Amino acid sequence: MNIAPNQRALITGASTGIGRSTALAFAQAGFDVALVSRSAAKLQALVNEIGAISTVKAKSFPIDLSVTDQVKFKIANLLEQFGPVDVLVNNAGMGYTGALNQMPLDDWCRVMDLNVTSIFQCIQAVLPGMREQSRGMIINVASVAARQAFPEWGAYGVSKAAVVALSKAISVEERGHGIRVVTILPGAVNTPLWDTDTVQADFDRSGMLTPELVANAILQTALLPLGAVVEELTIMPSGGTL
Predict the structure, then answer these.
(1) Which residues are catalytic, by number?
(2) Are 168 and 146 contacting, i.e. CB atoms less than 8 angstroms apart?
(3) CA distance 10 to 239
(4) What pLDDT does 2 receive?
(5) What is the largest CA-CA distance in the chain?
(6) 152: burial class by Cβ within 10 Å (0-12, 13-18, 19+)?
(7) Which segment of 41-50, 60-69, 198-207 scores lowest on mean pLDDT?
(8) Rounded CA gap, 241 and 45, in Å?
(9) Three-state DSSP class for 139?
(10) What is the dihedral of CA 188, 192, 197, 201, to 10 degrees?
């Protein structure tokens, strides 16, 4: 159903998990979508899938957001090709487990660069276009780990708490320009994050949220009328914290 005609969304981490489901949900709602992740092949497969179910414009932009000194430039170049966006969904990030007292500094910086600094750089890139339009929405995907500490998840929790703080700061600075900021705080979600080599955890994934459920919540916040905003939204599995 085309309920957001002539609107554009930029979604990071779009090739898998929450980002992929969000891209599909936005496309089905009528958004043209710019899709960002490292994997060109997975992005192209998603573009093809969107083309089979929707007439919206979907374009892939393979960008490694962990190379933070290039992010702002590459996102700005994306916007020159795709056009200014109405919604930015900052979803890209990494999981990491390990005790803080033994965590190498390089690992700490890697988590903070991708989970926080890349978001900051994406925001800086889209703000000029949003300001020119006097409207826009920035949706940052954080985690309940920003609010609750879990053993071995310290660096990840700190990075997500920083995303919450960044969202609040951008919100107060940009609301006068018509720009709204949303922070999504999901509980455990069954995504490929659990299969990465930086995460060592043994949870029952059958009790986790699905990416589709989180994506639908993200879409609903984006579709709110201009006079309203969901500043923070926590979504938990019905069984509670795993």
Answers:
(1) 156
(2) no
(3) 32
(4) 66
(5) 51
(6) middle
(7) 198-207
(8) 33
(9) strand
(10) 30
3-state secondary structure of 235: strand
DSSP class per residue in 33-63: EEEEES-HHHHHHHHHHHHHH--S-EEEEE-
Looking up tokens 């990071």 gives: 12
Give the β-pairing of 8-12 and 87-90.
parallel
Q: Look at residue 214 in the predicted model and tell me its pLDDT.
A: 96
Instruction: Identify the H or E element spanning 136.
Output: strand 136-141
**Residue found by looking up tokens 């899709």 in the block:** 35
Q: pLDDT for 191-228, tens place per residue?
A: 877 677 787 877 777 889 999 999 999 999 999 999 99
Helix (H, G, I), strand (E, B) or coil at 99: coil
Exposure b/e, 16-34, CB count within 10 A at least 16 = b: bbbbbbbbbbbbbbbbbbb
* Chain centroid to CA 96: 17
What are the tokens at 80? 């020159």
Q: How many residues does the chain have?
A: 242
Return the structure tokens found at 1.
């159903």
Q: What DSSP state is assigned to residue 148?
A: S
Residue 65 tokens, joined: 């957001």
Q: How many Å apart are CA 222 and CA 217, to the nearest integer?
A: 9
Distance CA 228, CA 223 (A): 10
Task: Give a three-class secondary structure readout of 149-205.
Answer: CCCCCHHHHHHHHHHHHHHHHHHHHHHHHCEEEEEEEECCECCHHHHCCCCCCCCCH
Q: Which helix (DSSP H) or strand (DSSP E) does residue 119 occupy?
A: helix 118-133
pLDDT of residue 3: 76
